[in-house]
Amino acid sequence: MQSNESSVHYSRWDDSSRDEVSMGTMSGTEETSCYRRISQKLCTGKLGIAMKVLGGVAFFWITYILGYVTGYYVHKCK
Fold it and tell me: Are 12 and 19 a contacting pair, CB within 8 Å?
């Protein structure tokens, strides 16, 4: 797994007969935003799996509680 990302910049000018292609590498601390680092940390590896499982369990219980409350008020006897 590479720690640096490669970038290719291609520019073509109408008045020039040559095409310009420049290649470079971006270091992780320069171009990587804070959100991307947090996302990579929380969504990959063992921590990512644990976050997905906890998110699924939380989603299940929220849906269950909303359904229970909705069903209670819909089927409530007068």
Answer: yes
Residue ranges making up the domain that contains 30: 5-74
CA atoms within 13 A on the CB side of 8: 3
Name the nearest CA neighbour of 21 among 10, 33, 32.
10
H/E stretch holding 7: strand 5-12
- How many domains does one find in the chain? 1
Q: Is 26 left (phi over 0), alpha (psi -120 to 50) or beta?
A: beta
Distances (CA, A) of 13 to 17, 66, 68, 71: 8, 59, 64, 65
Rounded mean pLDDT of the chain?
77
Percentage of the chain beyond pLDDT 90 is 32
Residues facing residue 9 across a β-bridge: 22
